[in-house]
Amino acid sequence: MVLHRAQVLLVQRSKQPDKGLWGFPGGHVEWGETVLEAAARELQEETGIRAQPLHYLGNLDLLLRDQSGEVSAHYLLVGVACRYLSGVPVAGDDAQAAQWFAVDRILHGDLPMSAQVPDLLEQALRAEGGQALARPESRA
After folding, report:
1. What is the CATH number of the domain that holds 57?
2. Domain-embedded: residue 133
């Protein structure tokens, strides 16, 4: 999750699960890669944005069920707070769109989003007091 100048970066998924919904950039951890390294790599691959991973925000279980109610897939999603470094959002990899959204818009839920996006955003804002992640770059 990247916050910058009271905005949060989201991608619109081009694949299932959640095709067409907006959510945080992310993907699979590669063999020998830490979760924090994977967060930075996936962020850049999906959006063109460079950011410094700071810390874990929490874990979310995503259970997909078939028509009979049986679990067909189980994903463990790990939220990572990242500090914006540079770049302009450009959709890449498995994202069909990437853009900044006002934090308030996401918290009000007026965008078709993956489950728990507003909850994870609120968690990040509480954890950092809304300041450390959202402050503008200190470099010129």
Report:
1. 3.90.79.10
2. no
Beta-carbon contacts of 49 under 8 Å, excluding residues fewer than 6 positions away, are 2, 9, 25, 43, 84, 85, 86, 87, 88, 89, 98
pLDDT tens-digit readout, 96-125: 999 999 999 999 988 999 888 898 898 888
The residue segments making up the domain with residue 82 are: 2-128
**23 CB neighbour count, 10 Å cutoff:** 20
Q: Which amino acid, residue 75?
A: Y
Number of domains in the chain: 1
Answer whether residue 34 is part of any domain.
yes
Which residues, at least 6 apart from 26, have a Cβ–Cβ distance to it below 8 Å? 39, 42, 43, 46, 77
Total-model pTM: 0.84
Q: What is the pLDDT of residues 53-99, one digit of tens each?
A: 999 998 888 788 899 999 988 888 889 999 999 999 999 878 899 99
Q: Is residue 135 part of a domain?
A: no
